[in-house]
Structures are given as structure tokens and as C-alpha cells.
Design a protein that fits this description.
single chain, 345 residues, alpha/beta, Rossmann fold, 13 helices, 16% strand, globular, binds NADPH dihydro-nicotinamide-adenine-dinucleotide phosphate, binds the ligand CC(C)CCC[C@@H](C)[C@H]1CC[C@H]2C3=C(CC[C@]12C)[C@@]1(C)CCC(=O)[C@@H](C)[C@@H]1CC3, NAD, membrane, 3-beta-hydroxysteroid 3-dehydrogenase (NADP+) activity
Length: 345
Amino acid sequence: MERVVVVTGANSGIGLALCERLLCEDGQLRLCLACRNMQRAEAARSALLTSHPDARVDLLHLDVGSVQSVLAAAQEIKARYRRVDFLYLNAGIMPNPHVDIRAFFKGLFSRNVINMFSTAEGLLTQQDRLNADGLQEVFATNLFGHFILIRELEPLLCQADLTSHVVWTSSSNARRSAFSIQDIQHRNGVEPYSSSKYASDLLSLALNRHKNSQGLVSSVICPGLVMTNLTYGILPSFFWTLIMPIMYLIRIFTNTFTLTPHNGAEALHWLFLQKPESLDARAKYHSQTSGLGRNYTQPRQMDVDSETCEALFSKLLDLEKVVRRKLSEKQAENDAHQKYLSEVE
Ligand SMILES: NC(=O)C1=CN([C@@H]2O[C@H](COP(=O)(O)OP(=O)(O)OC[C@H]3O[C@@H](n4cnc5c(N)ncnc54)[C@H](OP(=O)(O)O)[C@@H]3O)[C@@H](O)[C@H]2O)C=CC1
Ligand SMILES: CC(C)CCC[C@@H](C)[C@H]1CC[C@H]2C3=C(CC[C@]12C)[C@@]1(C)CCC(=O)[C@@H](C)[C@@H]1CC3
């Protein structure tokens, strides 16, 4: 049977590498690249079709940071496909990152050095802002838009006798201490990325608790440190190129330096091949690359608890109601304005 795979943020980096790997695995796939920039999406589609001329690759406009765009994209998916077998929630941002150089050098000579390189704990902060929906942009993009997408696609994801797999591209930068259940959007901190990724770990567990019985399975991965537009936003690409030999050296000690998008997509690809029933809801699946360049996937237990995951789930459902109500009020205002304009013309 033809399998439908939707990938958000598929036009570059890890998302695009995943698409390439999935097409090598199964040429019969129906692959849907859900992207906000259609020009880049078209370029990604052309690149995929160059190596897989017979592949079925669809494009879909989706700005996961805009609730209205998510609702429209979900409508379009429901019109196009009868079900969704895999939903890769990969789109993500880290705006205005700042590396604490002093902390880096301090960490370099501490016993914590390996952990520092694999999680960036204590090294990175970001400056967030509000988006057009009045939500914190990092939370809206990395988590909430994807949550609304799942909610809208439930009829295609939860079908009798069939299993659908939702996969979150999280991070080893996800940290409990960066997240607060009183401030799920991270309005009051400087680590919105870490908070949003920790929230995705919690939400994945909540989805498993609530939706496994309806055939939906959720998993979380970390791609490791990968050279993509996201990391080129942290330090310029020429700098990364300059220190590449050092990074290959570090890879010998921490296999989390996967470095290329192909390697980073390892755990995403591996999950595509697994029986969903065999997966652990509390594990994060890490892409790893050995010093000699061998890729493998390593499960590690996440620092999540049922109580916090339930609290987050219920807060997200509440926020969904508020956002939907605001949107329909705005829509009603627009309709009234249009009516007024047509009457005075
Ligand atoms: N690189 C790394 O070391 C790591 C990355 N990750 C995660 O991997 C994922 C992929 O990132 P990566 O490949 O590294 O970086 P890229 O910047 O190359 O890819 C991010 C993708 O997300 C898309 N995107 C961003 N915002 C939106 C939006 N509002 N709506 C739709 N699409 C959007 C981007 O589209 P556009 O081209 O339009 O910007 C792009 O396609 C992210 O979730 C990131 O957090 C996790 C751990 C490490
Ligand atoms: C390696 C060099 C000599 C110096 C680089 C220092 C830092 C800029 C990096 C050290 C660990 C890196 C890291 C990330 C970003 C760049 C570093 C802080 C991430 C936070 C990128 C995004 C993620 O999601 C994480 C998995 C990465 C963890 C490691």
C-alpha cells in the first residue's frame, strides 16, 4: 500500500536529507514537503527528482509559525490524502543565538566538557519575539504550530487498525531547567529553544498516553550537531569550515557531532524502519556518528514525568481554544468589514 509521508521544514538541512534517504528506501512513497518558502521548496523538489526521477514528491505551503497557515495546510492535506502514515515535525528555528565564550572556555577545562559539546548546556541563549498570533515565535514554530497540525490531522492519523507515526526533531539541548509549566511559551527567559525542545519531549509522551489506543505513535529524536542554516546562524559558515578538523577530532570523544545533514537524519530514517510497537515512549533516539564515520541510532531515556506532560497537554488544549476563538473573531470582523464595503460601494 502507498505510504504518505509529510515532512515539515523539508526544504533544507536535516529535513531535506531525510527526504533523500526516505526515497532511497522506498521509491513508492508519496512524499509531501511542507514548507513556508515555496521557491526553496521547489528547488528541494527538483533536487530530489534529479536523483529519483520517478518519485512522487508533492509541495505544500505551511508556515508552522502561523496558526492560520497551519489550519489551511491541514485542510489541504485532508483534501489530498486519505491518511498520513508518517508525520515528521522537523521545522525549527533558533533566532538571534548568542554563545557565551567565557562559559565555553571555562567548560573546555572542566570535567563537564563532553556534556558541554553534546548539549551546549550553559553556552547558548536566544532573543525571542512575539509573532502575529501574539505567541512567542520559538514556541509557536517549534511546538505549537506542530501541535495544531496534529490536532487537525487526527482523522488521518488515528484510523482503525492502522498505525501512524509522528516524529519530532527535538534536541539534546532540551533541558527541564529551561522549561517552566507556568511559562510554557518561555516569555520570561533567554533559552526559548531549549524550552521548546523540552516541551516537544513532554508533548510526545503525552500524545503516546492519549493517542496510542487510537493508532497514533509519537517519537522524539536528536540529530546531533549538524552543519545547517541553523548552525550557520550561530557562527558563520567560514568559521565552521575553519574548525572542521577540530570537530572531527571531537567526534572521536562524542559521537553526537554528526556534522552532515545525511548523518543527522540517521535516527529519523531508522524510525521509519521500526515497528512503532517496539519503540519506547520515554526514549529520545539520538543520531550518532563514530570517529570512523559509522552512523547508528542510540536510545536514551528522557528526563520527563507523566505529571508535567499531562499539565502541558492540558495547557496546550486551553491555548488552542483561545487562539481559535481569536481567529474566528478576527474572521467575523473581516467579514463584517467586507460586507460594509460592498454595501457602501
Ligand atoms: N542543526 C543542528 O545541529 C540541530 C538541529 N536540530 C533541529 O533540526 C530541525 C531542522 O533544522 P536544521 O536542518 O538544522 O536547520 P535548517 O534551518 O536547515 O532547517 C530548518 C527548516 O525548518 C524550516 N522552518 C523554519 N521556520 C519555519 C516555519 N515557520 N514554517 C515552516 N518551516 C519553517 C526552514 O525553512 P526556511 O528555509 O523557510 O527557513 C527549514 O526548512 C530543527 O527543528 C532544529 O531545531 C536539532 C538539533 C541539532
Ligand atoms: C567546536 C568548536 C571548537 C567550538 C564551538 C562552540 C559552540 C558554538 C558549539 C559547542 C556545542 C555546540 C552545540 C550546538 C550549537 C553550537 C555549540 C554550542 C547545538 C546547541 C545546536 C543545536 C542543537 O539542537 C544542539 C543539539 C547542539 C548541541 C551542541
